[in-house]
Amino acid sequence: MTNRFASSKLYSSLFSSKVNPFSAACFSTHIVGESPVLVRDFIHAALYDPEHGYFSQRSGSVGVLDRSIKFNQLEGRKAYMKHLDAIYKQSDTSWFTPVELFKPWYAHGIAEAIMRTANLSVPLKIYEIGGGSGTCAKGVMDYIKLNAPTRVYENMSYISVEISSSLAKKQLETVGAVDSHLAKFRVECRDAADANGWGLEQQPCWVIMLEVLDNLPHDLIYSKDQVSSWMEVWVENKHDRSALSELYKPLEDPLIASCMEILNLAKDGTTVGSMAGSVAKNIWAKVFPRPRRCWLPTGCLKLLQVLHGALPKMSLIASDFSYLPDVRIPGERAPLVASKKDGNSSDHSSYLDAKGDADIFFPTDFWLLERIDHYCSGWLKPHEDNSSKKGKKRRTLTLDTSSFMEEFGLPSKTRTKDGYNPMLDDFKNTKFYLSVPTHNIK
């Protein structure tokens, strides 16, 4: 799981978006073997397979700027877009994350949020899931070294959990630019969603996930009309292995079932507690039958289950897309699938076209993220009366990016001469989610 940047993808599309000219048959179908796989397993392989995955062999997919952008020297939006266009034309394959484009100020805002909330009487421990090029880690550690009491910096530890070996190497190089950071920083090259890689950390700690949720595997459920039962979607090779196709099976997977339970989706196609309109719904379905497709963030559910189990006192800070424009792939919470070649962004019309050559990124439903967070912490039980007075185990807050950076960051550093500020003005489709434990254990 690696850092991804919302706006850079949109910028790249604005400059040179086009329909991908290549057929699915041009790309490897080896990420699906002889047996069908669930959609989440297909997506995981398409992104992270050691031989064919988009990120595993493409460290260049995460861009690194040679130097920080001098926003205060740019006249305004037009000058910034021209500068950004030049950056992308110099980088054939890379996307640039916000922590990279706005370095060091973006990471400094995150560090300030941590310092205001963390219990600094115990050693500060930070985990970052999918650390990308290491720019966030270096920026956070720089800020703490400069602004926190000396003992906080000297006793801190920063652990990056990175699935890509090439990115793990790059992170060490980036953070190692400051000698004193290296003694406090390490990279664990593994899948953060694999519980076997974690021990049990009983002390308070922080977990940072920047543009990670959008690249987590999702599952897909399908119904042929508005009243038919939901089916699991699997991916299989055609007999001649020339292309991939979908296969529909009855619901059996426990992760899918848990996600549907959190969403209050019944297996028979209804929504729990909404039987009053079922008669009208049946009539409507017979007159205007319409297939339904719903994407479920099972990868997020699995990751948060693992994190809450291994780090019961963790505080979480995550940033990601709240919505994606111009999505061609059908279904609620459907992803964008895009390739980048020669500086041009190409959008695919099917997620099955992504076989190691394309990024797959999803919008984050922050209401659902909060429910999953509470569910994995052991507080939320679906179908219970959520208005009861019992205490929550988590305090949560969702802020749009501009509100977060105005509160914790230094937005004056990313403002152009005419007042335009890309960090605040161009992130209307991203939000921050903060979640901290409470002392209530009931």
Helices and strands in order:
Elements: H1 6-16, E1 18-19, E2 37-38, H2 39-48, H3 77-90, H4 98-101, H5 105-117, E3 125-129, H6 135-147, H7 150-155, E4 157-162, H8 165-175, H9 179-182, E5 185-189, E6 205-210, E7 219-223, E8 231-237, E9 244-250, H10 254-262, H11 278-287, E10 292-296, H12 298-310, E11 314-321, E12 336-341, E13 344-347, E14 359-361, H13 366-376, E15 394-400, H14 401-408, H15 422-425, E16 430-437
Helix pairs in contact: 5-6, 5-14, 12-13
Question: How would you describe this structure to a colleague?
Answer:
- The strands form three sheets. Strands 5-4-3-6-11-16-15 form a seven-stranded mixed sheet, with helices on both faces. Strands 2, 7, 8, 9 and 10 form a five-stranded antiparallel sheet that branches.
- It has two domains: 6-218 and 296-437, Rossmann fold (3-Layer(aba) Sandwich); 224-293, no CATH class.
- The chain has 442 residues and is α/β, with parallel strands linked by helices.
- The relative contact order is 0.18.
- It contains 15 helices and 16 strands.
- It is globular and about 60 Å long.
- A hairpin with a 2-residue loop joins strand 12 and strand 13 (344-347).
Alpha-beta content class: alpha/beta
- Principal-axis shape equals globular
Q: Care to count the β-strands?
A: 16
Q: Considering DSSP H and I runs of 4 or more, what fraction of the residues is helical?
A: 25-40%
Number of domains: 2
Query: Counting H and I runs of at least 4 residues, what is the number of helices?
Result: 15
| CATH class descriptor of the largest domain | Alpha Beta
CATH-level-2 architecture of the largest domain: 3-Layer(aba) Sandwich
Pfam family, one: Methyltransf_28
Function: Arginine methyltransferase involved in the assembly or stability of mitochondrial NADH:ubiquinone oxidoreductase complex (complex I).
GO molecular function, one term: protein-arginine omega-N symmetric methyltransferase activity
Family: Belongs to the NDUFAF7 family.
